[in-house]
Amino acid sequence: MNDNLVSMKKLKEDIRSMKLFSLFLKPEDRKKLKEVKQQMHNMTKQFDIFVRNFSDNGWCLYDSISSTIMETANKTFESEGMEAAENILLNYYMNDIKSNIPRLKSISSEFMQRYDLINHAFNDHFERRFYSSIPLLLIIMDGAVNDFTKSKGFFAKGTDVSAWDCLVGCDDSLAKMKSIFNKGRNKTNKEKIFVPYRNGILHGRDLNYANKYVSCKCVAMLFAIADWMSYKNSEEDRKKKYIKEMNPPTIAESLEKYKQIQIDKEEISKWKARKIVVGETVKSNGNPEEYLDYPYIQEIFDLFGAWDKSNYGKLSVFLKLHFSYEPSEAKRAGECRKLFLNKKYISFEFREIEERGCSLSRVLVQANWSVGEKFFSEPLEFGCAYQDSNNETAYPWRDNGEWTIIPWNITALHKC
Asked: Each residue of 180-198: pLDDT tens digit?
C-alpha cells in the first residue's frame, strides 16, 4: 500500500540522512528527529494495520480519515476483536462525521451540485432510514464520479480511481473498495448483508440491506471519493513540486539560502506579537481607517465590501482557497456566485484578532446576512497570511508580498 506514498518515502529517506549528522545536532534537535521518525513509523504502521483488519469488510481507508479513530479501532481490534472495533467506526460515522459534511461541498463542483441530495442522504442516515440513505449514497457516488471523469461512473468497468502520492489512490484503498462493492449478485438474497453490494442493492437482489453497517460504509466511501477528487485535481502540481524538491540546489545556492535563513531568523526574533483585545485595543465594528496599524485587517474589510457589492469575481479572489478545486478564475467566480447569490450582506463585526506570527494572523468575525426573510448571524474564521508571488511565506517589513486570506472555517455559509 505504501509504495504509492512517494513523499512519505522521501521524508523517511531524509530522516535517515539526517541521522548521519545527528552527532552535530543539539540534544533537543536530536530528540525532535527521533520523535518525527517514531511518528512516521507509527503512522504507516497504523495505515497497514487498518487495511489488514478492516478493508475486506468494506471499510475504506482515505487521507482525511480521523487518525484518532483509525488508531482506536486498530487497538480495539487487537484487544477486543472485530465486533468491538467496528462499533468504534460505526459510532464515528453515525455521529462524529456530521461536522465534516460541509467540507464535501467545497471539494468539487460535482459534489456541490449534488449537495441537496447529499443532505437528504445524511438526514436519512442519521435518522436511521437506511433503506433510503444507502441507495442515495450509491447513486451520488456513481453520478459524481461520472461527471468528474467525464466518462464513466464510479462503479463502471474501467474507471480508473488511482491517484498519485495519497492513501486513497493506493490499490488497497478506493480501488479495492470498488471491487468489493461491485461484486456480482446474481441471485435474490434475503439474508442480512453487511457490505454495500451495489449491484445487489440497486438491482433489487439483496433485499435485507438496510442497516447501519452498510450505510456507514457508504458514508466512508463518499468521503474517500471526495479525497480522491481533491488529490486527482492537484496531482500535476504536486508532481511538479516533488520533482523540484528532488533536484537539490548547488552548494553555492545552499550556502546563499543558509545565509538568508540566518538573516530571517534574526529578523523574526525581533518581532513581537501584539495583544489585541476587541472592544479595548480595537473597535469591534469600526471603519477601515481605524485599523491601519493592522494591515491584514484591510483584506477582511475588502472581502466583505466585495460581498456587499455582489462583486463575485473579486470575492472569489479573496476566497480562492475555498474554491481551489476549480482550476480557473472564471470557474471559481462562478462557484462563488452560486454560494453568495441568495445571501444579502448586512454587516459584520470583529470578535477575536490574534497575531500568531509575523506573517500570520487569525481573525474571527460575526457575520450577518439574510436569505429572503430569514436572518443569519454566524461566526466566520479567517487566517491572514503574508505571502510572495509564489505563495511562499514573506515578511511584511520587507514589503515583498501581500496579505492573503485563508478561509479556515466558513462552513456556516453553506447552511443556507
From this structure: 999 999 999 999 999 999 9
